[in-house]
Amino acid sequence: MIHCPQREGVPSLMVMDRSKEQTLAKFRQKLQDTGCERKITEPFFPWQNANQREIKEFKKGAGRMLLITNMPRSLWEDCLEYEVYVRSHTNARVADYLSKWTDALAQI
Questions:
Q1: What radius of gyration do the chain's Cα atoms show?
Q2: How far apart are CA 39 and CA 107, in angstroms?
Q3: How far apart are alpha carbons 30 and 24 in whole angstroms?
Q4: pTM of this structure
């Protein structure tokens, strides 16, 4: 997230929930300094649960990739970006199958 504004630019709007990290004054100030508007979603929206599950799967996938390939943790952001790219271009059923398969490989 730190390098995102340098590579892609600053978004004009960020929509977020009321998580602790996103409501801290330091984060709000950083958004104001960059000219990014902040919108807060209504609590307990049904689609947020689905999004949170997807984010969890992205993180698990990136973690598996680091574990299986013995990559250094400094490549976490790159693994996460790759995982999001692959999952966004893959059928959901295939992605779930690959996720279970790589989980089994990680335990060998």
A1: 16
A2: 41
A3: 10
A4: 0.46
pLDDT tens digits, one per residue of 49-60: 777 788 888 888
Question: Nearest to residue 57, comparing CAs of 27, 28, 32, 83?
Answer: 83
* Cα–Cα dist 5/9, whole Å: 4
Backbone torsion region of residue 45, taken as left when φ is above 0, otherwise alpha when ψ lies between -120 and 50, otherwise beta: beta
Whole-number Å distance between alpha carbons of 92 and 97: 9
Q: Is the pLDDT of residue 74 over 70?
A: yes
Phi then psi for residue 30, to 5 deg, are: -60, -40
Residue 77: both structure tokens together: 């952001």
Residue length of the chain: 108
CA-nearest of 30, 42, 40 to 1 is 30
